[in-house]
Amino acid sequence: MRYFITGGAGYIGSNLTDRLLADGHKVVVYDNLSTGFERFLLGAKSLPGFEFVPGDLLDTDKLAKAMNGCDFVFHLAANADVRFGTEHPGRDLEQNTIATFNVLEAMRKNAVKKIAFSSTGSIYGEPDVFPTPETAPFPVQTSLYGASKLACEGLISAYCEGFGFQAWIFRFVSILGERYTHGHVFDFYKKLLSNPDELFILGDGHQKKSYLYVQDCIDAMLLAIDKAGERVNILNLGSDEYIEVKPKLSYAGGERGWIGDSPFILLDCTKVRSLGWAPRVGIRDAVTRTLDWLSKERWVLDKR
Amino acid sequence: MRYFITGGAGYIGSNLTDRLLADGHKVVVYDNLSTGFERFLLGAKSLPGFEFVPGDLLDTDKLAKAMNGCDFVFHLAANADVRFGTEHPGRDLEQNTIATFNVLEAMRKNAVKKIAFSSTGSIYGEPDVFPTPETAPFPVQTSLYGASKLACEGLISAYCEGFGFQAWIFRFVSILGERYTHGHVFDFYKKLLSNPDELFILGDGHQKKSYLYVQDCIDAMLLAIDKAGERVNILNLGSDEYIEVKPKLSYAGGERGWIGDSPFILLDCTKVRSLGWAPRVGIRDAVTRTLDWLSKERWVLDKR
Fold first, then answer.
1. Euclidean distance between CA atoms A131 and A42, whole angstroms
2. How many domains does chain B have?
3. Average pLDDT score, chain B
4. Cβ–Cβ of A147/B151 closer than 8 Å?
5. B147·A143 Cβ contact <8 A
6. Does residue B227 belong to any structural domain of this protein?
7. Is residue B194 part of a domain?
8. Domain assignment of residue A133, yes or no
9. Sheet containing B2-6: order of strands
10. What is the interface size between A and B, counted as CB pairs within 8 Å?
11. Which positions in chain A touch B147 (Cβ < 8 Å)?
12. The domain containing residue A100 runs over which residues?
């Protein structure tokens, strides 16, 4: 198989790239390096069957050309800057919604009909049901990020119906592990390094978060693509565990860390578990592995 | 109040314009006349307090300028060509999703914080529950039109959360009445006029449709805006009745009229009825009024 991975120089994308190459597949990574790092692809670059195309998803010609000859698309590239959505409201529309449309059109041009997509548990807004199943009541969006991912899911589903595509849409919780370069744990680590005596937390510290280890996430995606055979497969991807963001020191206050932050995301992952998957690494271990990696790769702290 | 109505030269928009002017309000209509007709505004133009700005929602400067001084936005403009979505997949993205984003940004620039939006029952895809409530299980989109309306709803909701907007999102069934210029009834009428001996029907004729009379639709919107005071108010807007599309003659076959067509849309309208609204005109009367109007306004048949 020849896989096309948007955002393949990013955190999850580069780990997925390594896995697919190790499994003997060919991989084309398409990434504009806005948040990805070419050094995450150093291992991949030493292997045959790998190709890196630096490019933007808004460059539709380059995108379509790069996808030529591929069999399957992992569309992982996104503006993942959930928190500052209201400072630049057009960014989620452009880099998520329009970019996804461009990926789908490039697939049509190249007769590629299978796509896996990284959506988000944020799409449930502020649900009434925990853990939240895929069939939760029709949610109301609370962030521009969630709204854009909702738009992407809708587009992908409509392409499945209208153009005979098949899709695997994964609604992620936060993912931890090697090459993790942004998010709560990253921010906390960076703040504590610069001032070990104080940690300033957005919100009231009681926000609960569920994390999944990156290799467990990849296991689940690959298994689901193999086992789930509907036209549109929508799967929550998380852990049954959660932890409270509750350091000891000072708080900005408020139930939410920022406008549009979900105070709690805990997904009902019965559906993906029914395919035979279970996470192998718990949250505590996932945090430890992440911190170990960050402490070895200090360069990444200066890049963000 | 000074209302800004996108798509105000269209079917529902022009009826709403007349109503608001009759109620003593000021109205600015913004419409690119791609599917609207300036002659629908002839009555409005004879009244003080009315302004027509011919313009496109993709022209962001003109849009923002035209909205200056308005208090409330009815965003009704849309690509409503549900059926041919797969022939030009970018159109729904551009004219619905991006256009809605532009409306929201124009509102931010003008400090207008209230918006009513015409969404669609198609957003429920192919639901399992009939009549379908607003809190139906998280739907899977089956048309590019539905997907784009979903994206619009998400954007509007996120602006409510992020920028303190208040929204009334109406999920319509098909609307019938004076100035109706496209849809099943229009197509059937036109076909029967040209050949009264045969009517070729897409699908198997058993598609069920629920229709609402346009003045009932306007009553419901105005009442809901007055009575429903949540930050994001999402309301189905339809009739409890439905009819089968079942003429006698020849059928294209298949359960659906076209890819992405919903075989059945019947909305649970308990929520909007709880505000004190009920339709006053039944489906049969609504069809009759529509046909009466079409028979008097033959010019419109040549324009489509």
1. 39
2. 1
3. 90
4. yes
5. no
6. yes
7. no
8. yes
9. B50-54, B26-31, B2-6, B72-75, B114-120, B166-172, B232-237
10. 130
11. 151, 154-155, 157-158
12. 2-176+212-239
A123 contacts: CB under 8 Å, gap ≥ 6: A139, A141, A146, A149, A150, A153, A171
Kindly list the catalytic residues of B: 145
Contacts B161 to A, Cβ<8 Å: 141-143, 259-260
Compute the average pLDDT of residues A183-197.
76
B293 CB-near residues (< 8 Å, 6+ apart): B177, B178, B179, B180
- Give B136 to chain A, closest Cα distance, Å: 5
Cβ–Cβ < 8 Å for A189, A183: no
Residue A39 has pLDDT above 80, yes or no: yes
Catalytic residue among A145, A159, A180, A242: A145
Residue B126 falls inside a structural domain: yes
Note the pLDDT tens digit of each residue in B98-148.
999 999 999 999 999 999 999 999 999 999 999 999 999 999 999 999 999
Q: Do A151 and B153 touch (CB under 8 A)?
A: no
Decide: residue A250, CB within 10 A, 0-12 exposed, 13-18 middle, 19+ buried.
exposed
pLDDT at A151 exceeding the cut of 90: yes
Cβ separation B150–A148 shorter than 8 A: no
CA distance B291 to chain A (A): 32
Domain CATH number, residue A73: 3.40.50.720
Question: Which chain A residues are closer than 8 Å to B136 by Cβ?
Answer: 137-138
CA quadruple A227, A232, A238, A239: dihedral, nearest 10: -50
Half-sphere CA count of B210, side-chain side, radius 13 A = 25
Q: What is the pLDDT of residues A276-292, one digit of tens each?
A: 999 999 988 998 899 89
Task: State the pTM of this model.
Answer: 0.92
A150 to B154: CB separation less than 8 angstroms, yes or no: yes
Closest residue in B to A152 (Cα) is B151
